[in-house]
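step 3/5: co-fold with 1,3-dihydroxyacetonephosphate
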Amino acid sequence: YPYYSKFDAHELIKIARALVNPRGKGIYATDEAPYAMDDLLASLDEDPKLNKTRSEEDKRERRKKWRVCMYSAAPTDYISGVILHDETLRDFKLAEILSEKGIIPGVRANLELTPIPRSEDEFIVQGLDDLLSKMQAARAEGARFSKWRAPIACSSVEGGFPSRISLETQAETLAQFAAISQQAGLVPIVEPDVDFSRDADLTRSAEIHEQAIAMIYERMRAHGVLLEGSLIKPSFPQPGLRHPSRSNVTPEEIAVATATVLSRAVPAAVPGILFLSGGLPSSQATQWLAAINALVLASPPTSPFTRLPPLTFSYGRALQGEPMKHWVKGDEEAAKAALVKWSKACWHAARGEVL
Ligand code: 13P
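step 4/5: write tokens
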């Protein structure tokens, strides 16, 4: 591994593998920005005016209490790692709750979005400046992996999304993030998040996923990223919300499209694939994950699908949607139980077991 004299390549590989093994284990994503976390919690308040009366200090305390509740409940049997926001890691210092019970803490590396000047409905992701020192600081606080989310617009061919410049920008940015993250001793998770709000059909969505992922690995190679010590967090190829086939697409169709894209575009050296839930209902995110694993595990040895690494979850909303509803009403125990319930359901799904 020519570029890894400083940080032991084997350490990166060990962490990357531990995040996706034994099969079934996956990541709980809790890296919402503080304002986004406040909005999420406030959206569930019984009285919508209540949030206006909260001071910044009250909101901060509320975020912290929510995180502590979820981290203390996160089940080690099903959850391998948790992605933290910088505030939770370096300000609240909550990584230890997780690492003490054997869950690997990670950090969100990307900052906010800014429109691409020549294509204003698409975005550049900020955060490369000072990234090395920030990742080193995160490592010192206990983080062992990092993730960077790159949104990719997607429409029918006529709609014109994504633009070439946005695909190039995201691929280059993700590759730079991955290289810098490894330099700081953190396993990078590259997250191409292909949007499904427009009018692409499944074929078009799959095509864009394949193109985006292939471009990311081309740039990762150019930057000398240690693929064996990195992971990918893609979206599921799917028909857009504004395409008529959205309402009747089956989990099996999603599974075939997803396995095809990934077996073509993700190099065999990458030790794991973790899906994002992207706002899908928890039951659908779980069903799709189960369908793709069932497909891969039932494929004959001659199928390229059998060469795919473990396919698991790195879900945010799909894991904590139900817990949050209980927590906002003050029922901590029900919130904790719901997190365990959904973590277990995802664990079964990542083993191809449809319950
Ligand atoms: P969702 O599963 O809610 O999409 O969150 C995953 C994530 O990390 C988004 O960046």
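step 5/5: annotate
The two ends are 42 Å apart (CA to CA).
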